[in-house]
Amino acid sequence: MAKQFQKTSAHFDSDLDAILDRVYGKKSDSTLDRAKTPVSQPFVRKDPGSKELKEALAELRNRRERAQGSMRLMQMQEEVDYLREQIGVLRDLGDQIDQLRRRIAIEAGQGNSSTLSDLG
Q1: CA-CA distance, 41 to 45, in Å (whole number)?
Q2: Phi and psi at residue 18, in whole multiples of 5°?
Q3: Could you tell me the pTM of the whole model?
Q4: Integer-rounded Cα radius of gyration of the chain
Q5: Sequence-separated contacts (24+) of 24-30 with Cβ below 8 Å
Q6: Which has fewest Cβ within 10 Å: 2, 13, 45, 114?
Q7: pLDDT in tens, the chain (120 residues)
């Protein structure tokens, strides 16, 4: 039994490396349509070991994609929070500018010659 495993292990290892390279390799891209990715012939066989391996790899890929989706959502939420904070700052600055304009208009209407430095 061990000899039969030794004969197939080299072929199995290269096929496993090819799958892992396709799933996690540098050429991996989440925009690829993985359903259309061809599966090499050794993995089309009906032996239970390769079926379990394919299922495990599919589950691993699904978990990775869900984790990446969660990370993207967290990053987007952080960006939204930052933008809301900046909107608040801009509104406060706009209110301060409006107050200064009103004070200048009032002082200009009274003929007062104060400068902006006197307003602070």
Answers
A1: 7
A2: -65, -40
A3: 0.42
A4: 32
A5: 30/65, 30/68
A6: 2
A7: 445 544 555 556 677 777 777 777 655 444 555 555 555 565 555 556 788 888 899 999 999 999 999 999 999 999 999 999 999 999 999 999 999 999 999 999 887 555 555 555
